[in-house]
Amino acid sequence: MVLLESLRKAFSLFVEKISLEELSPEKIKPLLEDFKIELVKNDVAYTVAENICSEVSEKLSGVKVKRFEDVKPTVKSTLRQVLLGKLSTRYRKDLIETVKFKLSAKEPTVILFVGVNGSGKTLTVAKVARLLLKNGFTVCIACSDTFRAGAIEQAEILASRLGIRAIKQSYGSDAAAVAFDAVQYAKAHGINVVLIDTAGRMQTKRNLMEEMQKIARIAKPDLVVFVGDSLTGNDAVNQAEEFMKCLNIDLVVLTKMDADAKGGAAISISTLVDRPIAYVGVGQTLDDLEPFDPEKFIENILP
Ligand SMILES: Nc1nc2c(ncn2[C@@H]2O[C@H](COP(=O)(O)OP(=O)(O)O)[C@@H](O)[C@H]2O)c(=O)[nH]1
Ligand SMILES: [Mg+2]
Fold first, then answer.
1. Quick one: 242 exposed, middle or buried, by C-beta within 10 A (0-12, 13-18, 19+)?
2. What is the pTM of this model?
3. 71 and 129 fall within a common domain
4. Would the pLDDT of 1 be above 90?
5. 64, 169, 215, 279: most buried by Cβ count inside 10 Å?
6. Ligand that lies nearest to the alpha carbon of residue 156, given by its number in the listed order
């Protein structure tokens, strides 16, 4: 379940207010200024909020309204159109399609999960494993977070609940070597998908990026998935941009949407990183992963 009531309120407030006015640029301007502030309060990045408002203004300024005509539907459809533009990306990749394609070439799909500590990588790896198992694929997990205490056990417990293999070494060992082992294991045993769980310590950002690059070089992932915590708003967007500088991200998963009233990170991340949000995390069980549907998201905030 996705919440977003705060963002929804910002939109309905704007629609209500503007409906009382004429759609002239001078009348709209102050309303758009308020709307922009509301968007920023709801974690939409400032540049993106500005962009949304200028597009809305441009689109509405061309609209002719008759006296006493209700402008609400026009305003709503304009907002919908602008938001859909923000949530759509030119770059397109699909997780299941990639797995099917690799399978047809008799090769395992390697998926690397990156993100900072606590963003939900390990749980998301397990959720994606469950999704793939449901689709009839075989899966194993590479415990490449060899840094954080308890990380290997956490991945192992999730793997055993799913009935799949977790490939591990000891703490402090080379994360890329673990990923490599897992890929070799998958090749030897005909496993369809390797999910690589990684560390996300931020205090040594440079080392983290180097580690991710090394894993990517050695395990040659078919997909790199950025896992961001939606509750952290703009931070999640900035992190994605940081990772993007040293690694090509293919897909985004936004976690904790079940607890996020704002949802601005979803709007910003697609715009600023130009990568599709593939799934959203909506709870702590292994089934709490939903495909992200921009139309449904917009429907949620613009009823
Ligand atoms: N409510 C909620 N909690 C989540 C979600 N995804 C992850 N978590 C929780 O966030 C915390 C950190 O998750 P974890 O997978 O260990 O993060 P990692 O450090 O990136 O591997 C755990 O308590 C998870 O249960 C989600 O979609 N919704
Ligand atoms: Mg973890």
1. middle
2. 0.95
3. no
4. no
5. 215
6. 2
pLDDT for residue 204 = 59
The ligand whose atoms approach the alpha carbon of 123 most closely is 1
Lining ligand 1 with CB less than 6 A are 115, 117-123, 200, 255-256, 258-259, 281-284, 288
Domain boundary among the residues 87, 106, 121 is at 87
pLDDT (tens digit per residue) in 270-292: 999 999 999 999 999 999 999 99
CATH of the domain at 36: 1.20.120
**Residue pair 247/215 in contact by the 8 Å Cβ criterion:** no
Q: What is the predicted pLDDT for the residue at 117?
A: 93
Residue 107: give the domain boundaries. Answer: 95-301
Last residue of a domain, one of 87, 112, 128: 87
- Give yes or no: residues 140 and 29 share one domain: no
Res 79 pLDDT > 70: yes
* Number of folded domains that form the chain: 2
- Residues 204, 188 within the same domain: yes
Would you tell me how many other CB atoms lie within 10 Å of the CB of residue 19?
Answer: 15
Ligand 1 centroid–CA 119 distance in Å is 6
Kindly give the number of the ligand 1 atom that is closest to the alpha carbon of 115.
20
Whether pLDDT at 208 is above 80 = yes
Which-ligand-closest: CA of 286? 1
Shared domain for 243 and 264, answered yes or no, is yes
Query: Which pLDDT belongs to residue 257?
Result: 96
Q: Are residues 79 and 211 in the same domain?
A: no
Q: Which amino acid is at 159?
A: A
- Judged against a pLDDT cut of 80, whether residue 303 lies above it is answered with no
- Pairing label, strands 139-144, 165-167: parallel
Beta-carbon contacts of 32 under 8 Å, excluding residues fewer than 6 positions away, are 53, 56, 57
Q: How far is residue 127's CA from residue 121's CA, in Å, rounded to a whole number? A: 10
Task: For ligand 1, pick from 282, 284, 290 the residue to mutate: most ligand atoms within 8 Å of CB.
Answer: 284
